[in-house]
Amino acid sequence: MRHVAVLGTGIMGAGMARSLLRSGLDVTVWNRTSGRAAPLAADGAHVAGTAAEAVAGVLWAQTTTISLRDAGDRLPALAARHGARYVDAPVLGTRQPAEEGKLTVLAAAPEPLRDPVAPVFGAIAARVVWVSERPGDGARLKLVANSWVTTMVAAAGQAIAFARELGLDPQVFLDVVKGSAVDTPYLDLKGQAMIAARFPASFAVDGAVKDTGLIAAAMREAGTDATLMDAVGQQFRKAADSGHGDDDMAAVYHAFRG
Q1: CA nearest to 38, candidates 7, 6, 9
Q2: How far apart are CA 166 and CA 156, in angstroms?
Q3: Helix pair angle (170-177, 137-165), 10° resolution
Q4: Residue-wise pLDDT tens digits, 20-32
Q5: What DSSP element (H or E) covers 30?
Q6: How far apart are CA 90 and CA 92, in angstroms?
Q7: Measured in whole angstroms, how far is the alpha carbon of residue 85 from the centre of its chain?
Q8: Cα–Cα distance between 72 and 174 in angstroms, integer?
Q9: CA angle, 225 as apex, 219 and 230 as ends, to 5°?
């Protein structure tokens, strides 16, 4: 595969397109708002006027976070109707890993599709996990992973806000857990952003609102109690409603402030 089309050039898509271009692939890009795709022309991409114009191949790797019904049923059926081969391949990572070609791909597709899509995954990812041959299993694992990430970031926001409301320097909280069994690099990364109140978006609050909704719906479908995820989603929606939708997901901190 030497010709690749990227549909959607937001935070993640633009970074992935640049990674593909760096790998030597011929890349065509399209975005609903054309102005967001145009800057990629300077990096060597062909900018298409329509999605149909952009799509020149018949192997479709679907990399965003979508519902289980879409990932496992609706989109494979759509691909089959148009003679395309479909790879369920959501990615883990944010703006910087996308720009650096260091995402993690969670892929699910029949075995014969692995080699044809390998050049694309090699360009955008540091790690490729083949979950199964059943389309939809990549999406399932992505929702599981994002259930952990969104809950952890919301919990960090709660702890930082709680410390401040108690009259404590929240940095002391980060310092006391640092290096312990309950520490994570992500806690320090997002906690420092919350303390500094700086939220350049690596993954936006609005994206977390979407994902927590998908996760809660999938939990209910699977028979998992979604009480905690509903509460986490409510806090991200609260942050979005207060004007932080375009900020990094660490801005969920504002939902916990008194």
Answers
A1: 9
A2: 15
A3: 130
A4: 999 999 999 999 9
A5: strand 26-30
A6: 7
A7: 23
A8: 40
A9: 75
